[in-house]
Specification:
Chain lengths: ~425, ~350
């Protein structure tokens, strides 16, 4: 049974990581495309229109990959997590089906029109189709996060005698207190990714002295969007999410922050340290006292429960991975703010285009927003353990009763092979 | 309420097969008949431009099934685990092929992806047919052995095949001679549909030849259809009862026959879109007839221990289904609007269009 869950989880983690590489770019990029197109409508400078069309091509390729990697995600609920699907399908099926109807159709229909229909439609309508693509992709984020929010913090349900969750209140799914902070944080994080991509293409053009006119446009837009979104990702939305976790998943919070022992008064914030699971402490720790209590509750000496307050089987099962994921996300977020602030400063002093080291830094930073997004999700998903539906349905009770681990391993290897072919 | 969602999902599935069916079919035709580079180019383009918006219909059908019949979704997706994952691999692989083909100019590169596009389209058509065959044949629900079930009555697991390849053993596999026949019907049907699509959408040099191909495939289809009806009686003797009890269900087989008979006159049909409509009828009629013959069962049990899965014993709660009805109607209306806008702007032959892909 144990290794059964292990392969199911590994396969899910692998395929969702594969999937999430694409939507995190498309969701943010669609916003930037709408921005370029809007600028063009205002000032009629051809450059902006070309920028919008150029990025729509990149969008289209990523969208296609998003579709093909997304279909396995949806199927896997049934194939690998059949018991989970049977028990909760009446609830999360709602949000998943709405995603299909309201966002994927919108996105895919108008994407084709945006790419092929500019001459047929005229500029205003062309802008509108771009806007609808944006709306579709953000709606998709909204519905999938509503699904995830329900698993993190279940609301509006009733549990029948046979263990089935049935929907009791439809609108509760969307007024879930977990949803809005997670949605805003996640969407801004995807704007971070796309801003970095846009800025780095710009930096590349400038460094190579090719298409420098576009290079400057991309760099400038990327840096401005990048700084604004990086700041908003940390504050208020990151902070807001942290408060939610502390309130609704205190065990996960202790593990994320690396608090092994409850302190008498205010909790310290850990900057560096390696979780030592044998002695249950952090090795080589550097921490600042009382800050965590203040950040979380605005009270310097508020007590925050450590992991010693929870039963072993209530805590996430992979604490080091959870702890590192969280710290990588937050650490990278801080670096992004720093780099983008520096870049904006030089942009303002009109020097940015000549400072090579900074341009190279921007160019090579591209993979890191992807890593921050993925580790952010690892934090959320590992923190939810050992539950599939927090507090109610254990992960071990959600897998397919009839699929053996040998078969799962086989199919996992197949997915790995497919990813390999892709590159 | 269950009935509404059953019909809605059936419609979405049928639309999916009509739409994505033509690009699977284009792949099959491409594999066997396209010889010149120019034709290959335009055929892959006629599939490449549209498949991703077509596959949205599959996603929608999956989502609706999950929402309305969670127990069925859980049972079928875990029970047909291996074939479904193979289908997923093929879908991903085929898409990669279509997207990669144009990336480099080397002939060998193109040939590799052309072959993989053709072969994966063919296998997908075969697997979809086999899937339908499995549904109408039924499975060993609860994995019963000597009267004892290994799982709850709505779970099962099928191996890819059983060494006897017979649909009548206690534990039939996914692939047996009966499901293979249904799989072949799917391949032939989609090949006809794909050929019609190519004729409709492109000016390829094989268009004239394809009409002859359609005629021959249609003969094969007629033979297979009659043959499958006979063996179906043998596999499941009650398969036609629904039609005698509720004669109005006969409309579906009639739709199928209209398509089948109509296509014999393929060479006389003036408008390409009419031929395409006929092969669409073939697909719609075929799927609807199979579903109607089972109704209200959606997955028959081949043992006597567990009852069949029906739309009533696998559905979500009444409240859930009725709120979904409200947003579902809005959603459907919007989709129809998008669809009309899109089709009006993107009609015509694709060779003449500047798509700047
Ligand atoms: C560019 C990406 C990125 C960056 C720089 C950050 N985040 Fe983040 N974070 C995400 C990308 C992300 C994410 C992938 O988008 C997550 C996963 C789930 C979600 O809704 O958003 C997330 C989740 C997430 C959670 C919820 C974890 C859970 O549900 O258990 C918290 C508490 C934070 N973040 C906090 C922060 C803080 C305090 C940051 C300060 C710099 C920060 N994040 C930067
Ligand atoms: C919003 C939609 C999402 C839903 C509904 C969802 C649901 C799930 C489910 C059902 C599992 C398997 C059971 C488990 O191990 O808990 C899982 C695990 C996992 N997911 Fe998500 N997930 C979502 C988004 C993501 C994203 C975007 C990522 C990362 C890019 C991600 C990363 C992971 C990882 C790493 C695991 C494995 C965790 C473990 O095994 O401990 N998830 N998720
Ligand atoms: C387990 C979780 C998930 C499932 C089951 C899932 C399912 C899918 C499916 C089936 C598609 C293809 C849609 C189509 O045919 O157009 C898709 C695409 C997409 N998904 Fe996911 N997805 C998951 C996680 C996520 C997450 C966490 C996000 C972002 C917050 C996301 C955002 C998108 C977007 C924006 C698309 C459109 C394609 C693209 O832009 O790349 N998905 N997803």
């Amino acid at each position: 049974m144990e290794d059964m869950i292990f392969y199911d989880r590994l396969q899910f983690a692998f395929t969702i990581t594969f999937h999430y590489i694409f939507p995190q770019l498309t969701m943010g990029l669609s916003l930037l495309i709408v921005f370029f197109k809007w600028k063009y409508l205002r000032n009629n400078i051809e450059k902006y229109n070309n920028a919008a069309k150029f990025f729509m091509k990149i969008f289209a390729i990523n969208f296609t990959m998003g579709v093909v990697t997304g279909i396995p995600m949806e199927f896997q609920f049934g194939t690998n997590w059949a018991k989970f699907s049977e028990l909760t399908g009446g609830i999360i099926g709602q949000t998943l089906a709405m995603e299909g109807m309201f966002s994927f159709f919108l996105e895919s229909s108008f994407l084709a029109l945006f790419i092929f229909g500019e001459k047929l439609m005229g500029q205003k309508l062309h802008f509108l189709t771009g806007f609808l693509v944006f709306l579709g992709s953000w709606a998709s984020g909204w519905f999938i996060l509503a699904t995830n929010a329900w698993m993190q913090h279940p609301v509006g349900y009733e549990i029948l005698d046979n263990g089935k969750f049935v929907l009791e209140n439809f609108s509760a799914l969307f007024s879930n207190p977990w949803l809005l902070p997670a949605f805003l944080h996640n969407q801004l994080a995807s704007v971070v990714t796309s801003s970095f991509v846009v800025a780095s293409i710009g930096a590349f053009y400038i460094l190579r002295d090719k298409h420098s006119e576009y290079g400057r446009l991309f760099l400038k837009t990327g840096v401005i969007f990048g700084l604004v979104s990086s700041v908003l990702v940390a504050f208020p939305t990151g902070d807001w999410n942290a408060k939610n976790v502390a309130k609704h998943q205190p065990g996960a919070f202790a593990a994320m922050e690396g608090i092994f022992e409850t302190e008498h008064a205010g909790a310290e914030i850990v900057l560096i340290g390696q979780p030592n699971m044998v002695d249950k402490k952090l090795d080589n720790k550097i921490a600042v006292p009382n800050i965590l209590s203040f950040l979380t509750y605005q009270e310097w000496d508020r007590q925050i429960p450590g992991m010693d307050q929870f039963e072993e089987d209530e805590l996430p099962d992979n604490i080091p991975a959870l702890y590192y994921s969280y710290h990588i996300m937050v650490g990278l977020g801080t670096i992004f703010i720093g780099v983008m602030a520096l870049a904006l400063f030089f942009l303002w002093r009109k020097k940015l285009y000549t400072i090579k080291p900074l341009l190279w830094t921007i160019l090579f930073l591209v993979p890191f927003p992807y890593i921050a997004n993925l580790t952010g999700w690892y934090t959320a998903e590992l923190g939810r353990q050992p539950y599939l539906v927090y507090g109610l349905l254990r992960t071990s009770d959600g897998i397919s009763p009839t699929v053996s681990s040998g078969n799962t391993l086989f199919t996992l290897l197949g997915f790995v092979l497919l990813l390999y072919i892709c590159y | 309420m269950e009935l509404f969602w059953y019909i809605a999902i059936g419609i979405v599935l049928a639309v999916f097969f009509v739409l994505d069916g033509y690009d699977f079919g284009a792949g099959i035709i491409h594999l066997f008949f396209a010889k010149e580079e120019k034709d290959k180019e335009v055929i892959t383009k006629s599939a490449g431009l549209f498949w991703d918006s077509n596959e949205v219909w599959l996603v929608a059908a999956g989502g609706m099934l999950f929402m309305a019949f969670p127990t069925f979704y859980a049972s079928v997706f875990s029970g047909f685990y291996l074939p479904l994952i193979i289908v997923l691999w093929l879908i991903v692989f085929r898409a990669i092929g279509l997207e990669f083909r144009g990336q480099f100019k080397y002939q060998m590169w193109k040939d590799i992806w052309d072959k993989s596009f053709g072969v994966s389209s063919l296998l997908l058509a075969l697997f979809f047919g086999i899937a339908l065959g499995n549904i109408v044949r039924g499975v060993n629900l609860g994995s019963v052995e000597n009267g004892v079930s290994a799982h709850e009555g709505h779970y099962f697991f099928l191996p890819l095949w059983d060494s006897s390849f017979s649909p009548l053993t206690e534990h039939p596999g996914v692939i047996d001679w009966f499901t293979i026949i249904i799989g072949l019907i799917a391949v032939v049907t989609l090949a006809i549909h794909g050929a019609n699509w190519i004729i409709l959408k492109t000016n390829s040099s094989i268009n004239n030849k394809l009409k002859g191909v359609i005629f021959k495939l249609n003969i094969a289809l007629a033979v297979l259809t009659v043959f499958s009806l006979i063996v179906w009686q043998y596999v499941n003797p009650n398969s036609l009862d629904n039609f005698s009890e509720k004669p109005y269900l006969m409309v579906f087989p009639v739709i199928y026959l209209t398509g089948l008979i109509g296509l014999f006159f393929i060479k006389k049909i003036k408008k390409d879109s009419h031929a395409f409509a006929l092969s669409s009828l073939l697909i719609i009629g075929g799927i609807a007839s199979s579903l109607a013959s089972l109704f209200p069962v959606i997955l028959p049990s081949v043992n006597d221990v567990h009852e069949h899965l029906t739309i009533y014993n696998t559905s979500a709660s009444e409240y859930g289904l009725s709120v979904a009805l409200t947003w579902g109607i809005i959603g459907f209306a919007l989709i129809v609007v998008y669809f009309i806008i899109q089709k009006r702007l993107m009609s015509g032959k694709i060779d003449n269009m500047d798509y700047g892909h």
